[in-house]
Specification:
The complex is a heterodimer of chains A (146) and B (152). Chain A has 146 residues and is mainly alpha-helical. Chain A is 64% helix and 0% strand. Chain A is built from six helices and no strands. The model of chain A is unreliable at 74-84 (pLDDT under 50). With 152 residues, chain B is mostly helical. In chain B, 76% of the residues lie in helices and 0% in strands. Chain B has helices spanning 2-14, 17-41, 47-52, 62-81, 94-110, 115-124, 128-151. The chains are: A mainly alpha (146), B mainly alpha (152). At the A-B interface, helix 1, helix 2, helix 3, helix 4 and helix 5 of A face helix 1, helix 2, helix 3, helix 4 and helix 5 of B.
Chain lengths: 146, 152
């Protein structure tokens, strides 16, 4: 119908979104694991600056959501037609998020910053990203019967 | 009280005016990127979900996922092109990074999201699930940091 629905346009907007997301992570220094650990280390020399990253992102996204009259109601992990998100808090959510948090705290890397920092060429970032993809596959093998 | 004063003292020592502004600016860019994907693609900018969705035979939604991933990875090159610097201090051993990556990969799939999907997009739409998830990973991440840096 409109240009907004054409596949090429949607690929372009997804590319731009990824690019801007990455630039945001770099500007905010989320790509520096030591900085992230400084934020998580409340018992040490706590560095609260990453709280401002979250505030900046939430204020911007909430305002824009209000403007475009849409909120993140769709699940990015679903294929084809976007389905509404699960609505209940369950054990999988709590256990999964807790496991993710342990992994994040161990190295200071979470998925976005790890992918952005691959460009640094550091071996460690490739080890992390390789292991992360292995984790994705392990989940698929264990929890998604063919 | 003393502990609180300690935190405040250290906070000022490790953070200055420009750090706060850069953090807010970086956050605003992240929010803008998430809004773009939501407005045009009707998708949540949850990085673990977008990327893990690529692990399957090529489908109609694979193209935009790949485009997002390429944009994300190229962002550092664009940043360098304009003379930016990206400090990375990664002190973990290869073994710790391997375990950390595995836990992040598996955990984000079981919990349906990571820092971006739950912590930014989920909180922005006031999702109860994302609030619980964010509380869980913030607490366990804090405990892991405590364990690695103050116990071991």
């Amino acid at each position: 119908m409109s240009f907004k629905k054409s596949p090429a346009f949607l690929i372009l907007t997804a590319f731009l979104s990824g690019l801007i997301f990455g630039l945001g992570l770099i500007v905010a220094q989320m790509t520096n694991p030591a900085k992230v650990i400084g934020f998580l280390d409340v018992a040490g020399h706590w560095d609260p600056s990453l709280a401002f990253v979250i505030i900046g992102a939430l204020v911007t996204l909430s305002s824009l959501q209000f403007l475009i009259k849409k909120s993140c109601r769709y699940n990015a992990s679903k294929t084809e037609s976007a389905k509404p998100l699960h609505s209940k808090v369950d054990a999988k959510l709590i256990i999964g998020s807790s496991i993710f948090g342990i992994g994040w705290g161990l190295s200071g890397l979470c998925p976005g910053p790890a992918l952005v920092s691959l460009t640094s060429g550091l071996t460690g970032t490739f080890v992390f990203v390789g292991a992360m993809f292995t984790g994705f596959v392990v989940f698929k093998v264990l929890h998604q019967p063919k | 009280m003393a502990a609180f004063a300690g935190i405040r003292f250290n906070s000022f020592k490790y953070m200055n005016y420009s750090t706060v502004l850069l953090s807010l600016a970086g956050g605003a860019l992240i929010g803008l990127a998430a809004a773009l994907l939501l407005y045009f693609n009707n998708r949540v900018a949850g990085i673990s979900g977008i990327v893990a969705g690529l692990i399957k035979p090529w489908q109609s939604d694979s193209a935009w996922r790949l485009a997002f991933l390429i944009g994300l990875i190229l962002s550092a090159s664009v940043w360098f092109l304009f003379g930016g610097i990206m400090p990375i201090q990664l002190d973990s051993t290869v073994e710790v990074l391997a375990v950390s990556g595995l836990l992040v990969g598996y955990g984000t799939q079981l919990g349906n999201g990571c820092t971006s999907g739950h912590g930014i997009c989920g909180l922005a739409r006031l999702s109860t699930r994302s609030m619980v998830a964010t509380a869980c990973f913030m607490i366990t991440a804090g405990l892991a940091v405590y364990g690695v840096h103050h116990v071991l």
